Amino acid sequence: xxxxxxxxxxxxxxxxxxxxxxxxxxxxxxxxxxxxxxxxxxxxxxxxxxxxxxxxxxxxxxxxxxxxxxxxxxxxxxxxxxxxxxxxxxxxxxxxxxxxxxxxxxxxxxxxxxxxxxxxxxxxxxxxxxxxxxxxxxxxxxxxxxxxxxxxxxxxxxxxxxxxxxxxxxxxxxxxxxxxxxxxxxxxxxxxxxxxxxxxxxxxxxxxxxxxxxxxxxxxxxxxxxxxxxxxxxxxxxxxxxxxxxxxxxxxxx
Length: 254
Ligand SMILES: NC(=O)c1ccc[n+]([C@@H]2O[C@H](COP(=O)([O-])OP(=O)(O)OC[C@H]3O[C@@H](n4cnc5c(N)ncnc54)[C@H](OP(=O)(O)O)[C@@H]3O)[C@@H](O)[C@H]2O)c1
Hints:
By secondary structure, the protein is α/β, with parallel strands linked by helices. Helix content is 48%, strand content 20%. It has helices at residues 11-20, 33-42, 94-100, 129-139, 152-162, 164-181, 186-204, 209-216, 223-232, 235-253; strands spanning 3-7, 25-30, 48-52, 56-58, 63-66, 77-79, 81-82, 84-87, 102-103, 106-110, 120-125, 143-147. It has an 8-stranded mixed β-sheet with strand order 3-2-1-5-8-10-11-12, with helices on both faces. The protein has a two-stranded parallel sheet with strand order 4-6. Strands 7-9 form a two-stranded parallel ribbon. The longest helix has 19 residues, at 186-204.
């Protein structure tokens, strides 16, 4: 059984650690002993050790998952050479990472929060076959993996699937508010929206988005009135611009 060393104990580290729990030995590395211990207990992590580090992390021959904030990268010093580093930090390029940390192999991964429920999508870039296989073994446990053949596509993909849960969260909230405005009680509105997202996700596996839209929009009917309002509010370009803004921000972190 390989040991995976996760640097960080935030939301993404939790999703990853819970998914890998029992399948790999884990090592949780960070700067706050209490938080690490709490993280291990709260998530009932098996076969897991903790390493509390104030400054220098010995990464010799380790398989590392870097799950700290991009601005925290240089908080630590990294000594020796790791076997492979999976970098999930938004925007941080392999070139930038190479200057801070020595590894035999580097891999960019952009997961999303649905990893917490085993339905995440991880976008992965590596130019090494063995690293790709290991990435698949690790990140498939959290949902599905999609490989891209250009590192720059990680930032574009991240602006959709990485940030996407926040955009869809906004849509869900808006629809719940809309239900309340139309006189439904809050709990009923939440149930409707949950059912809507669940069914839509399944439908999207078998139908194209425009097909789903046409199927729902009968001539002279109710839905086309709603669509008109959304088009008048430039909803489509608002989404395109949101993804573009997130992508631009990721590029500034590279
Ligand atoms: N959340 C998402 O949807 C998502 C999706 C894709 C990728 N990512 C990437 O995943 C990484 C972690 O995100 P997250 O959502 O898990 O964040 P989070 O829950 O806020 O956790 C952040 C982690 O970074 C550590 N950290 C923060 N500032 C630090 C500093 N100055 N020095 C050392 N450690 C520091 C925190 O430790 P302390 O508590 O000790 O500060 C914690 O372990 C980010 O790089 C993000 O770009 C996130």
